[in-house]
Design a protein that fits this description.
alpha/beta; seven-stranded parallel β-sheet; binds nicotinamide-adenine-dinucleotide
Length: 257
């Protein structure tokens, strides 16, 4: 229960990596605040379930991470936090000269600017407590590029830069800020792409995963949401107190190539 007594906000956590991270933080004893832009019964039920399973405080707070005011309000409504995980993110794929302007703006807002707003709102409380952890879920695409993902890659490189700057501004204050850079992670979103890819490439599930989806991931294995959650818990541990302003790749060797 190394994180007992700490409160963690995880943005975009009603599915996928965010949910996995929230569960691992709760398993380590933290009270958790789940978030997304919807306000459904099942969102609140998800939080209640985590609270019961791990005997921690767990709440769901609706806030749209594309809006700066709501990002800051999330931190206010949570009563501040000890651990902030900026995870909310979306993707759109198109050549740069055809990239829809509204998609560019939404991706930059949700994947990058939201982390600026939540961090700005959370830091004063962390400074007052002399302890804080900011963990930004970037991507292998925060360190490398692929065609047709200009907004996502610009945003994720931006998140890596933001993490370094926040680390410098908080150095020596008991606060760290780092970015986790996952390769392909098997989330419901990625799982849903497998049948289409099988059809398009006329391949079976295993072949399409190995040869198409994980072509850039030398391990040819997906990372799991539990592994991203475990890495987050490590960054919140005392062993990681001097790890700040850096990236941790969880990508099966992608960025070693
Ligand atoms: P996902 O779609 O399952 O999760 C995205 C989460 O963000 C969801 O909870 C969604 O509700 C939330 N969200 C979307 N728009 C939002 C908004 N406007 N306000 C609040 N919440 C919003 O996808 P995922 O794969 O779990 O992705 C989570 C993060 O991990 C993203 O930042 C993504 O870029 C990053 N990532 C994913 C992979 C991967 O392979 N899955 C790899 C590297 C990085």
């Amino acid at each position: 229960m190394q994180l007992a007594g700490k409160t963690a906000i995880v943005t975009g956590s009603n599915s996928g990596i965010g949910l996995g991270v929230a569960r691992e933080l709760a398993r380590a004893g933290a009270d958790v605040v789940l978030n997304s832009f919807t306000d459904r019964e099942e969102d609140h039920a998800l939080a209640a379930e985590i609270g019961r399973e791990f005997s921690v405080g767990a709440r769901y707070i609706k806030a749209d991470m594309s809006k700066g005011v709501e990002c800051r309000a999330l931190v206010e409504l949570a009563g501040g936090c000890d651990i902030l995980v900026n995870n909310a993110g979306i993707q759109h794929v198109a050549p740069v000269d055809e990239f829809p302007v509204e998609k560019w703006e939404a991706i930059l807002a949700i994947n990058l600017s939201s982390a600026f707003h939540t961090t700005a709102a959370a830091l004063p409380g962390m400074r007052a407590n002399g302890w804080g952890r900011v963990v930004n879920i970037a991507s292998a695409h925060g360190l490398t590029a692929s065609p047709f993902k200009s907004a996502y890659i610009a945003a994720k490189h931006g998140v890596v830069g933001l993490s370094k700057t926040v680390a410098l501004e908080t150095a020596g204050q008991g606060i760290t800020c780092n970015a986790i850079c996952p390769g392909y992670v098997l989330t419901p979103l990625v799982e849903a792409q497998i049948p289409d890819q099988m059809k398009v490439h006329n391949m079976d599930r295993e072949t399409v995963i190995r040869e198409v989806m994980l072509q850039r991931q030398p391990s040819r294995q997906f990372a799991t949401v539990e592994e991203i959650g475990g890495t987050t818990v490590f960054l919140c541990s005392s062993a990681a107190a001097q790890i700040t302003g850096t990236t941790i790749s969880v990508d099966g060797g992608w960025t070693a190539l």
